[in-house]
Amino acid sequence: MKNKDGFRIENVSAASIAEKTGTPVYVYSQSAIEKNWAVFCDAVSVFPERTVCFAVKSNANMAVLRVLARSGAGADIVSGTELELALRAGIPAGKIVFSGVGKTEEEITAAVKAGIKQINAESAEELETIADIARKTGQRPVVGIRVNPDVDAHTHAKITTGTKGAKFGIDWTDACPLYRRYARSDDIALSGIEIHVGSQLLSEKPFRETFKKTAAMLRDLESDGVRIDTVDVGGGLGVPYRSGESALSPKTYAALLKEELSFFQGEFVFEPGRFIVANAGWLLARVVRTKRTGGKNFAVLDAGMNDLLRPALYDAYHDVVALSGKEPDTVYDVVGPVCESSDVFGRDRTLPELEAGDYVALCTAGAYGATMSSTYNCRPLAPEVLVKGDRFAVVRRRQTVEDMMGVQLDPDWISG
Ligand SMILES: Cc1ncc(COP(=O)(O)O)c(C=O)c1O
Question: What residue's CA is closest to ligand 1, atom 2?
Fold first, then answer.
């Protein structure tokens, strides 16, 4: 998205957005989101029955959710607030699936009352809670079991979820009897299975292994007389973060699934997050100052790990580009202002010579960027901007000190 006028997002100069809103600021391209959504949906259209549920945890901006809702998206949620946001964005309850190891009774009750598509239970104890709540509300929710397939996704340890010993899901040996126990339950319709092995998967292997295991599980259940209507394969499709990195295409991913589970006659649910929004988002930041120490050049940005946590949390790589579009000729460690040595966006990055006031973009920041941000160091949450063609709008304003102070309360023995 670079041309002679500098870095552009759709038809808008990124620097003009930064000037208008200040930095740091997240910017999303509506067209890129819509295109990614269409590419994914087209790939999985080989399955006659399917629901694609956007993983709200990857980007929960209301404007982004509304764009996706208008494209026909369902939602994969992991909290009561995500349920509320998805519904308010116009995503029908019948297209919402709910995962998460720690759903509270309140959250389960809200999901049951809303009549969502499926609740994915992550323990025998949770199944019991869902059944109890269902009995009280008089509704019969559709429930799936999130099964831990014990597959190593060979992704970063902190985004692997499907290996034995992980907190997610239920071991297959324990899940199987649960299906039998609830097969004729009046309280819940236990008719789904969910398998999500991890995020940012770039190769076929872990997906193939997972789908093979799923096929074996389905056959086990069938021979036990248990009927499964829905196979929820979770999310996980990776995206390239650095140039030259290759990722699995949604078409290859769908073909793998078809190959391994062609016998399954029911519905498939997909929960993509990163694939839909990662490359549709940038975090724009300003160089506060440059400094040289220890034989290194540092570019200190006004964005920090509180705004974009992935590098500090997962050693994640994000391309850093200067909005000026000048020739890169100087090597910098690009760092944030937060008082943590892990507040580093990239080491030894070649950029044009930078000076205070220059703008840079942290690329591929649309997924797990704003949603993971915090106010650490009392830094306000960054605003978010949506671009469409040659227009842009602030879709979440920058948090103010008043917003932050507004939730602070004095005990009656300390006066302000
Ligand atoms: C259960 C579940 N579904 C879907 C996703 C979305 O994954 P991704 O953004 O990698 O597609 C996640 C992310 O960790 C998840 O835990």
Answer: 234
Q: What band does 265 get if pLDDT is binned at 50, 70 and 90?
A: very high
Instruction: Please tell me which residue, 383 or 243, carries the higher pLDDT value.
Output: 383
Q: Is the CB of 55 under 6 A from ligand 1?
A: yes
Catalytic option among 176, 339, 363, 378: 339
Q: For residue 108, how far is its CA from the centre of ligand 1 (angstroms)?
A: 20
Q: What does the radius of gyration of the chain's CA atoms come to, in whole angstroms?
A: 23
> For the domain that residue 364 is a member of, what is the CATH number?
2.40.37.10
* Same domain assignment for residues 332 and 252: no
Is 53 an annotated catalytic residue? no
- CA 273 to ligand 1: nearest atom: 9
Tokens matching residue 164: 């034995």
Residue type, 359: Y
Atom 5 of ligand 1: nearest residue by CA position: 235
Q: Is residue 35 included in any domain, yes or no? A: no
| Across 152-166, 358-372, 380-394, least confident range | 152-166
- Measured in angstroms, how far is the CA atom of residue 83 from the centroid of ligand 1? 16
Q: What is the mean pLDDT of residues 212-235?
A: 95
Range of the domain at 369: 2-27+278-405
Label residue 114 left, alpha or beta by phi (over 0 means left) and psi (-120 to 50 means alpha).
Answer: alpha
The DSSP secondary structure of 172-191, one letter per residue, reads HHHHHHHHHHHTT-SS-EEE
Same domain, 287 and 165: no
Q: Are residues 285 and 265 in the same domain?
A: no
Number of structural domains (the chain) is 2
Average pLDDT over residues 180-200: 94
Q: Can you tell me whether residue 5 is helix, strand or coil?
A: coil
Q: What is the mean pLDDT of residues 36-56?
A: 98
Single pTM value for the model: 0.96
